[in-house]
């Protein structure tokens, strides 16, 4: 006989057969693909693949010497590279929709206190990734590309390849987007009990050294870009410590009555 003083399991009676889970997963994946395809169709129509690539290349084109232009080494690069940019842009713009589908799939299997932890982290990680990529595009590229062009020898004609530029930009966007996820990593480590708040505070010096090494590896070879990544990472680490305190306090599992 069930003890009336004991709290019922929130998920009791919500179990579904394994096949039902597979069907739900398939539906969520299809909805994600449909969302990406819909955004891609809009981007192909307006502003179009060429305009999207021009927008992506704008920071570099502005820094090129007068009369210089980017080049396409591959035979089909002028066609394929803008299409790749359109697909990547569609995936980036569809990220909130994709994350919503993931959330809708896993949310029914989470307790209330787990939902309080996962949903804010998913939303915050998305915003931070977008912020990191935008910071890279609007600030870092604007500072790094002119500095790189000034370092080029006078005997060298600067005409970057469009495909090589795309690979570079993707790498930089991912690097800055992941670097801006520092608060999320700090919160998860603290919430899982792997480290304590006191340990996080004592690790500040080591983190600054590690962040400086990472910034030196992923940024272009100029001090402005390195500092532009290092300072946000240090500030975000401090923000992560403050956020970890709040998450630990407000997402703890409720005590069960005996």
Main attributes?
258 residues, mainly alpha, 10 helices, flat
Structure overview:
The protein has 258 residues and is an all-alpha fold. It has 10 helices and no strands. It has helices spanning 18-45, 49-63, 77-93, 95-106, 112-151, 162-179, 182-191, 197-202, 204-218, 223-250. Helix 2 crosses helix 3, helix 2 (49-63) crosses helix 5 and helix 9 crosses helix 10. The longest helix has 40 residues, at 112-151. The mean pLDDT is 84.
**Quaternary structure type:** single chain
What is the 3D shape? flat
**What's the main sheet like?**
none
Total beta-strand segments? 0
Mean pLDDT: 84
The fraction of residues assigned to DSSP E strands is: under 5%
Count, helices: 10
Give the N-to-C terminal Cα separation. 15 Å
Low-confidence stretches: none
SSE run:
HHHHHHHHHH
Decide which structural class fits the backbone. Answer: mainly alpha
